[in-house]
Amino acid sequence: MKDVEKRYDVAADGMDVVVKNVDHFDPDLVFDCGQTFRFSKDAGGVWRGVAMARSLAVTREGNDLRIFDCDEKTFYDVWYDYLGLALDYDAVGASFPTDDLHLAEAAKIGSGIRILRQDRWEALCSFIISQNNNIPRISMLVERLCNSYGKEFSDGKEKYHAFPTPEELADVGEADYARMGMGYRASYLVDAVGRVLRGETVLEDIDGMTTAEATDYLKKIKGVGTKVASCALLFGFSKYDAFPVDVWVRRIIEKYYPDTVGHPDFGKYAGIAQQYLFYYERYISDHR
């Protein structure tokens, strides 16, 4: 079992694990905010998907999280990190500028959002695929890629496919990606795979880089611009100061921070501030 800071009480309940009094984690917000593309909610309100070459099923029960078909060792070895549970979100909120009333309200409304710590290779490829796409189509394309080239595994009930490794994609060409519907992104995926396999892009090296350095590093991959690099860094590398700017976020900045060049200085958790503002503006403000 990993040696981690155990911030929550964990109890076995039959074949499941119940994580007690989990703050700042609403599965409806976490899995449906555009940071991951392999999860969906079933009729019983359980979010099910594939991550880290395993199946995951999770729901919230009052103040607790229930992770189905999981033991305590697997929770701490795999899901504690993946679900981002090590980060203290009260400290995150306390780090934001105290005079920013827009962000304060957004953080309150979006307090169930938590940044996952995804597999870095999967995050990079997924956001390459995400360019000029909507979430349902991104999910469909990612699933096609996994089903075509990812390793099959079973949880004893269902069969799944893991996200394919660079080695598993080594012989996949542009035409193969194009047949899946990747369009112009096909050449981007080929270049990403090639660079990783040749050692020109070493994803592990990013841990020692600043976010600015890491952004420039990822932008050497064909088709990876600042937005894609920022998404990959925020959701796959835990670079919490990465601040992806798309059309929605640009509108938010223009609306609430019109005198800002680039984006406001939200500090070392700027990416989490971005998620709060994005959720607030798109899903809350328009319906008031």
Molecular structure report:
The protein starts with 9 loop residues before the first strand and ends with a helix. It is built from twelve helices and eight strands. The model has no long low-confidence stretch (mean pLDDT 94). With 288 residues, it is of the alpha+beta class. It is 41% helix and 12% strand. The longest helix has 15 residues, at 135-149. The strands form two sheets. It has a six-stranded antiparallel sheet, covered by helices on one side. A two-stranded antiparallel sheet has the order 7-8. It has helices spanning 27-30, 72-82, 89-94, 101-109, 120-129, 135-149, 174-180, 185-197, 211-218, 226-236, 247-256, 270-284, and strands at residues 10-13, 16-19, 39-41, 47-51, 54-61, 64-67, 152-154, 159-161. Helix 9 (211-218) crosses helix 10 (226-236).
Mean pLDDT, all residues: 94
Given the helix and strand composition, which structural class is it? alpha+beta
SSE run: EEHEEEEHHHHHEEHHHHHH
Basic shape = globular
Counting DSSP H or I runs of 4 or more residues, the number of helices is 12
Low-confidence stretches: none
How would you write the strand order of the largest sheet? 1-2-6-5-4-3
β-sheet strand percentage: 5-15%
Number of DSSP-assigned strands: 8
Short description:
This protein is α+β, with helices and mostly antiparallel strands and 288 residues long.
SSE topology:
Blueprint: E1 10-13, E2 16-19, H1 27-30, E3 39-41, E4 47-51, E5 54-61, E6 64-67, H2 72-82, H3 89-94, H4 101-109, H5 120-129, H6 135-149, E7 152-154, E8 159-161, H7 174-180, H8 185-197, H9 211-218, H10 226-236, H11 247-256, H12 270-284
Antiparallel strand pairs: 1-2, 2-6, 3-4, 4-5, 5-6, 7-8
